[in-house]
Amino acid sequence: MLKLTYTENSFYLELLTQPIEEWIQAFCILSLRVGQSLCVEPSTACFLLPANLPGLPQLRSQINQNNSGEIIDIYACDADYVEVTLRGYWLSVNAQSMSGGFVTTMNHGTECFLHQLWLAAHKSTSVVMD
Q1: Phi/psi at 23 (nearest 5 deg)?
Q2: pLDDT digits over 36-58, tens only?
Q3: What is the domain partition of the chain in residue ranges?
């Protein structure tokens, strides 16, 4: 399972081993226990990766081989970036909230590889910005 946590300035992508249904159930129980509203709805999430990132062709190949195309798409934005679009579930305090989390699940190998690519892109961006 992949979890995207959105913050004011960025987002963080995590690879979790827990099944998505169990994670959502635990999150719902936590919300009930603390008295917080919770909205869970099917949605999409997008983020950018550098177009020249080594491994993108292999990711596209894995998506095709593992029939993950219904869950993940990769589109060229411009010469420098590609957009990764994921289908999954948005969790927030209400349907209009701009802050919250997004979870999705697909073939575990594809999840791992996408997470590695995001880490590599994030690391190279951090080095450039420092």
Answers
A1: -65, -45
A2: 889 999 999 999 999 999 999 99
A3: 2-129
> Locate tokens 């983020």: which residue?
47
- The single residue listed with the structure tokens 């995590």 is 14
Q: Which two tokens stand for residue 109?
A: 């190998």
Place of tokens 């990769």: 74
Helix intervals (H) in the chain: 20-34, 56-65, 108-129
Find all residues with CB under 8 Å of 116, minimum gap 6, and list them.
55
How far apart are alpha carbons 97 and 38 in whole angstroms? 10
Cα(106)–Cα(76) distance, integer angstroms = 22
Position 103 pLDDT exceeds 90: yes
Task: Fill in the amino acid letter for 60.
Answer: R
Model-level pTM?
A: 0.85
Distance CA 94, CA 98 (A): 9
